[in-house]
Design a protein that fits this description.
Elements (H helix, E strand, L loop, with lengths): L3 H15 L11 E2 L7 E7 L5 E19 L6 E4 L7 E9 L6 E10 L4 E3 L3 E4 L25 E5 L26 E2 L8 E19 L9 E8 L4 E6 L7 E19 L5 E11 L2
Parallel strand pairs: 1-7
Antiparallel strand pairs: 2-3, 3-4, 3-5, 3-6, 6-7, 6-8, 9-11, 10-15, 11-14, 11-15, 12-13, 12-14
């Protein structure tokens, strides 16, 4: 197990290299094929059109990230969470992809001796989307975002018993970033999250993007919304975990509690939760 300070150093080094920087001795970056014990993969799994999982096994424990984009300049980066330190079995989810599009990606690994390994430029093509068209994004401001002054009033749990601002904490559900997500700590159908808006709003739409795992678990299929007035709305059905789905509603509230109703168990949670409405007069 890595010491915390050592792990943070490796993560910083990993991100420096992936983002185009170089360590003091740039010749120390080796080809991925030279990793001790080799590498099995990478394989592209769960290619939904809007997300994909890069899966591989490293011969020694490593920390990793994957840079990706529609050309070899990449532009996006997914980094493994720090919670477990260096590992050998990697499954990195790339989110926010466009269906039927060729993506370039590059894997960067750092072992426990701070040796950096990097793959060549690799490519894959996302699947054509066969999902039913989602309702368009409602007009107006998402008042459930952190930047709009919303906050997490309560949550069933965060993965690893972390705080709301941890790697899989509840704040990720309202940060406006599709590459972060809130994960409960195995709550399944009992997962819930409560948002407090900056004021009282006449709400006309809510949106939820459920998280899922590479093995298609931890996914919410339906949910309800309970207001601070005690009214329950829904259940609302989520067709898949590929995008956010919006639902028209009509109620006035300052706090909204989103509760899972039907899931396939596990670390259920949300990529994003949004709320649209006007300030109540």
């Amino acid at each position: 197990m890595l010491r915390t300070g050592h792990g943070l150093f490796l993560l910083s080094l990993l991100m420096l290299v992936a983002c185009g920087g170089q360590p003091a001795d740039s010749s120390a970056i080796l080809q991925l094929e030279k990793l001790p014990g080799g590498i099995e993969g990478p394989n592209v799994l769960d290619n939904t059109g809007t997300s994909a999982v890069i899966q591989f096994t490293s011969g020694v424990p490593t920390m990793c990230n994957v840079a990706f984009g529609t050309d070899p300049n990449y532009g996006a980066l997914t980094t493994m969470p720090m919670m477990g330190g260096a590992i050998q079995d990697h499954a990195v989810t790339l989110s926010g992809l466009t269906p039927d599009t060729t993506y370039h990606y590059r894997i960067t690994l750092t072992d426990e001796r701070a040796q950096v390994y990097q793959s060549e430029d690799l490519t894959f093509t996302t699947a054509e989307s066969d999902a039913s068209p989602a309702a368009p994004r409602p007009e107006g401001e998402n008042v459930a975002s952190l930047v709009a002054g919303a906050r997490i009033a309560g949550v069933s749990s965060n993965f690893g018993a972390g705080d709301n601002d941890s790697s899989f904490g509840a704040n990720n559900a309202i940060d406006g970033q599709p590459n972060t997500e809130w994960s409960s700590n195995g709550d399944g159908d009992d997962a819930w999250i409560e948002l407090e808006l900056a004021g009282t709003y006449d709400v006309h739409a809510v949106g939820v993007w459920t998280r899922t795992m590479p093995n298609d678990t931890a996914q919410i299929f339906s949910f309800t919304v309970i207001t601070d007035q005690g009214d329950t709305h829904g259940p609302f059905d989520l067709a898949d975990a590929n995008q956010i789905y919006y639902f028209p509603v009509e109620f006035t509230a300052r706090t909204l509690r989103f509760e899972a109703v039907s899931t396939n168990s596990g670390n259920t949670g949300a990529v994003e939760i949004e709320v649209y409405g006007e300030a109540h007069e």
